[in-house]
TrEMBL record:
Active site per the UniProt annotation: 39, 166
Record keywords, A-Z: Hydrolase, Lipid degradation, Lipid metabolism
Coiled coil region boundaries: none
Pfam families with a match to the protein in the record: Patatin (PF01734)
Keyword field contains Cell membrane: no
Name of the protein this chain belongs to: Patatin
Residues annotated as domain PNPLA: 6-179
GO molecular-function terms, A-Z: hydrolase activity
Motif (GXSXG): 37-41
């Protein structure tokens, strides 16, 4: 008997694609029993695990629109501060993560993993040990903060005696973690694919993150070997294009539907 798991990858604003995939999964009446997430995947996956029947696109669209000015303002500050690679590599973190905490508090409040309707696993990275951290208990907001803590952008988050950074550092798409939590059929959502290989970079951060995307692609291949269904999205949006949430969501849904139709699966 299939025990479905959903592994949601890292990718910033491109995480809107996860919302589209979950909507289609619900329409297909697939019963997800395990969800794992890294970074953007943790943000979407945690809310889905708490509220499987919620209208995710409505929830995330509302939260993003409410906070888009402060999101854009912070990333404009970030872009102004990054003028060359040495500053990016040797400098301190550029943003404080207080504004992110306030946004996450709207989504998760004080909910704990034990309150999830679906078994949840979130991935982060411990700066001191250099190890992947698999989080399955405690307050969800803490785990999501740890998993989405982009290196160089935000300072390490001290939690449980460790200094946490973005889960995508070591595991951009936690397929094997989903299997470890009991899933035997894993649907993977991979945000690393981009259709345009000639993307122009506005600043050093975008270029460094594109290099990081290439690294992630190699790690994804390892994880995706054990996935049973894989969805990729030929998106050209940057990881900070939160204003394009609805466009990313709509385009991603169309890609998923096209893939299912090619495979003869009713969406």
């Amino acid at each position: 008997m299939k025990k479905y798991g959903l592994a949601l990858g890292s990718g910033g604003a491109r995480g809107a694609a996860h919302v589209g995939l979950i909507e289609i999964i619900n329409k297909r009446e697939i019963n997800i029993e395990v969800v794992t997430g890294s970074s953007a995947g943790a943000i979407v996956g945690a809310f889905f695990a708490l509220y499987p029947k919620a209208n995710l696109v409505r929830v995330f669209d509302r939260v993003i629109k409410k906070n888009i000015d402060i999101i854009n303002s912070n990333f404009k500050i970030l872009n102004k501060k990054i003028t060359n690679f040495p500053k990016m590599i040797a400098g301190k973190s550029f943003l404080q993560n207080d504004f992110v905490y306030d946004i996450y508090k709207e989504l998760y409040g004080r909910k704990r993993f034990s309150e999830c309707k679906i078994k949840l696993g979130i991935v982060s990275y411990d700066l001191e040990s250099g190890q992947e951290i698999e989080i399955t208990e405690g307050y969800i907001i803490d785990a999501v903060m740890a998993s989405s803590n982009v290196p160089g952008v935000f300072p390490p988050l001290r939690l449980g005696g460790m200094q946490h950074l973005d889960g995508g550092v070591l595991n951009p798409i936690p397929v094997n973690f989903a299997k470890k939590l009991g899933a035997n059929y894993v649907i993977a959502s991979d945000l690393s694919y981009q259709s345009n290989n000639n993307i122009k970079y506005d600043n050093g951060l975008d270029f460094l993150l594109s290099i990081d995307d290439n690294k992630n692609d190699l790690m994804n291949r390892y994880e995706l070997k054990n996935a049973n269904e894989i969805y990729k999205y030929p998106l050209t949006y940057s990881w900070v294009d939160f204003s394009a949430f609805n466009d990313i969501y709509i385009q991603s849904k169309s890609y998923i539907i096209e893939q299912l139709e090619r495979e003869g699966i009713q969406s």
